[in-house]
Amino acid sequence: MAIKFQGEEVLLKGKPLKIGDNAPEVKLVGRDFSEIKVGGKQDKIQIISVIPSIDGTVCSLQAKRFDEEAAKLKDCIVYIVSVDIPFAMERFYSNTNAGNIILVSDFIDKTFGEKYGLILTNSLLKGMLTRAVLIIDKEGKLIYQEICEDLANEPNYQMLLDKVKTL
Question: Tens digits of per-residue pLDDT, 83-138?
């Protein structure tokens, strides 16, 4: 699969999951270096917002929007996944007072990016994650996925929120 970044085609490593696939459970790193499990079967609906870096302008806007929306959602947990180091995630929390999202990182071994097929393979962001949003139901099935066609664009929040309302 390919997306666009600064007008150039950027390929993704592997194949993204398909709707109905089991979402792999992966262990990611929290802002305090703790281990956080994302994906798989959980007791809440998982909304996973994938970004290259919390320090990017569009990425930060995306995380802030999900923090606002998460406050209104019931029975959902919202993860923001990047390859940032925990210090960057902590800085975001300190600067924004975000309290409704969980920032996690795939920086150690990129297991999330590989299993979900979301690693950028070329461009100056090679090795980072692409911009995407996913919904995983309580049984661990992928029920919604948007991989943004252009890395500079935010996802379609309304489509995702409309899908969550049907659950």
Answer: 999 999 999 999 998 999 999 999 999 999 999 999 999 888 999 999 999 999 99
Question: Quick one: how many helices (H) and strands (E) in the chain?
Answer: 4, 10
Decide: residue 160, CB within 10 A, 0-12 exposed, 13-18 middle, 19+ buried.
buried
DSSP-derived letter for residue 22 is: B
Residue numbers annotated as active site: 59
Q: From residue 8, how far is each of 11, 50, 125, 151, 152 by CA, in Å? A: 10, 20, 12, 10, 12
Tokens 């920032």 locate to 103
Backbone dihedral region for residue 123 (phi beyond 0: left; psi -120 to 50: alpha; all else: beta): left
pTM for this prediction? 0.96
Rounded CA-CA distance 149/131 in Å is: 9
Distances, alpha carbon 116 to alpha carbons 8, 73, 126, in Å: 22, 24, 16
What does the alpha-carbon distance between residue 132 and residue 153 come to, in Å, rounded to a whole number? 10
